[in-house]
Amino acid sequence: MAEAWHAGYALDLGKEELTFIAGIHAFLNDRIEAVVDEGKLRELYIPLNELIHGDPETIAQRSTRLIARLKLQGLLLRTDLGGVSTEGEFTLSPLGMALGEYMEGERVLTRQSLEFMLVRMRTELAAIVAAAQAGGDTAHWETQVVMPLRFVVLQLVASIDQRQRGLDAIHIQLRTDISKLFEQSWAKAVDTCTAMLVSVGDTLRELNAVLAEHTESLSRMLLEIGDIDACPAEVTLLTERARNQLLRIRAWSDSRINAWTDYFRTVNEYIRLVIQVDPDNRLRTRLRDQLRQYPSHPYTLLGVEPDPFRHLRTVQRATPETVLQLEEEMLNRRGIENYEAPLDDPINVIIERLVERLEQAGQIDLVAAVLEEATGFTDEQWFTLLARATPSLLRLGIVPNQIVRQAWISFTPRLEAQSLQITTRPEKESDLGL
After folding, report:
1. Of 83, 104, 125, which residue is a domain's last?
2. Are residues 121 and 253 in the same domain?
3. Which of 194, 215, 338, 375 sits between 20 and 30 A of 402, alpha carbons compared?
4. 168 with 277, same domain?
5. What is the pLDDT of residues 207-235, one digit of tens each?
6. For residue 221, which of 121, 321, 297 has the smallest C-alpha distance?
7. One domain for residues 123 and 253
8. E strand or H helix at 365, and its extent?
């Protein structure tokens, strides 16, 4: 950036200057020598003067000023050693050549040009890989690896990148042309615009297929060159730059396909929702006229606001009944299985028996009754039974005041329980809810 700033590059180009550069570039392409004298430059200015409807009497002065402006900006270079008193020979500078090539439209990416350049790159890289694997002195690496990478492979990648930009410019212009066609012809332009969209989409898909076929192989070959142990640092930088440019080209292809798909969808929605709804362009014309006349004839839009329904509900359609058909074999084998009710919880069964004994006998020894009724229980089952049976029995009876003095009875070495003598409550206490 600092070098470009101090070099003093500054361009002030209008339509006249760019058109003159394009004419010089086209003239030089048909000549053996890449130079043009000052007299021929003045002749090349004559068609430009007709395009801009210039005054024929001042054509010499204006052509001289235009040549001087291009020389001052470094776009036109003098190649002879003559002085200011003689007419010299001129040629376009590299910057001027780049502008001329861009305006001439040569840098357009097609399937044929892309495939040719990618195949050429693969051929060159195959030779570079072989030379890098063979190894050698500094001169060998410079002539067999560095120079082909820099002046062949990178130039081919740059050429693809430039043609991509040219293709982008064409697509932008194509979108403008489609808009103009709809504006001028309306419904009559539908078929033409659709064909243009399909053609561009097919071209982008072809380019993407070619890139997908070659970019992976090219990237692998570049990595193979960079992974060689004796590879100089300059070669590594060149291979990394080439890989990054290839990845950028592939990303460009994917993004352009997605962008064009979205644009294709947008145009089709416009055709369906706008053009086909108003094929005679009457509604659109009336709206446009009203908008233009609004400053002098303002208008308002009145609408009726009806009362909403208070009991609005969603109407549900009846679900059609589906007839289920069973196979004859399944019907022949059908039968009724014996139903067996699930077994009751044994702990609940014992609790019911204990409650029944208390109601019938009027009193119960909890531990003794549990040992009689729940024979064969485990420690866990006895513990659960005592914990659940005690509250149920106490709701029906009472215990004596000497509950603390009652003995502890051992069920197993792990489980002991205090024996409770429970007696049913008198009827008066039961009535009082004590």
Report:
1. 104
2. yes
3. 375
4. yes
5. 888 888 888 889 989 999 988 888 888 98
6. 121
7. yes
8. strand 363-365
